[in-house]
Amino acid sequence: MSWPKEVIPDEDRLFMRVHRNLLSKEGELRPGVFRDHGGGMSTDWSKYSTPEETIARAKTPADNGAIVLPVGGVRTIPTLRVEHAPVAENRAHADVIGEKTPEVRVLLLRLVEWASRPRRSATDE
Amino acid sequence: MQVERHEYAQPWRRHRRSHGWSVERGDVVRRSPEWRLEDKRAQARSSDFLDPIREAIDRSRWITQLADDWDGEGASAYRVQTWARATDFLLQSARWLHTFLGVTLPVPDIGPGPDGSVDLHWRSEEFELLVNVPDDPAKPARFYGDDHQALRVEGTTPLRAERTPLLIWVAGRLG
Questions:
Q1: Per residue in B2-24, pLDDT tens?
Q2: Contact call for B70 and A21, based on CB within 8 A
Q3: Under an 8 A CB cutoff, do B74 and A37 touch?
Q4: Which has fewest Cβ within 10 Å: B114, B150, B151, B153?
Q5: Is 0.90 exceeded by the ipTM?
Q6: Do A102 and B128 touch (CB under 8 A)?
Q7: Which residue positions in chain A have pLDDT lower than 50?
Q8: For residue A18, what is the nearest residue in chain B, using CA coordinates?
Q9: What does the alpha-carbon distance between residue A99 and residue A102 come to, in Å, rounded to a whole number?
Q10: Sign of the CA dihedral B53, B174, B144, A121?
Q11: In whole angstroms, what is the distance from residue B140 CA to residue A60 CA?
Q12: B130, B142, B146, B149: which to substitute to probe chain A, counting the most A Cβ within 10 Å?
């Protein structure tokens, strides 16, 4: 099935998976979470997904949590665009497009809220 | 070579000869800036200020054991050389700041960055700084930092502590 591409309003939210290796020893989110996969940074639009569904789409859901990014907040970073990019198996899929420079990653980090924390990484205890 | 070693152990002798400063029984009465520099270097060698940084580096070795697709999203593995460049830079920076500016560098989080790069991330009330060391050794590290207000710094830096004004900025946030 092919889903129509829609405009994502500023008031909505994006959910993004976080692998447990992307938590620091103190349990804080690492800036390394912000990275592109192909054309952009993959997220799910809150209109068509919940954080639980976002986590369930991971290869290993037990290793993942989910964060929330406000769409309007992401768009305050001038070099970033938020675009709906639905795929057959995921109507919620959205890309955050633009280079993830150190500045962009620090600014994104400040926008984040947790929806569901992953279990702590066993490798960094 | 023997003379050089002897002078290093007793720096006042060199200064007395070259500058005529007063030295009695090995006690330097008037210290030159160069003498103080040697003194600071000796302190840096003998102190344990690097221990917390070394412990953080040891703890971060797990990064090099991650395989391709470690996150289930296609993330790259990390080369030991990249991790070593990042952690060498961290050690050099901590040593340089302590030796030359008398500042103890806080311990950063050492974490996996995008595309095989390694992140050094400091986050405190005084400042936040992210230094990203790329997988490509020919490229410089990129950084961004601010004091949570208007004072910001960003750019690229070679991975040699003595060449980077970035550390002066860090010292300013800690001083």
A1: 333 333 333 333 333 333 333 33
A2: yes
A3: yes
A4: B150
A5: yes
A6: no
A7: 122, 124-125
A8: B71
A9: 9
A10: positive
A11: 35
A12: B130
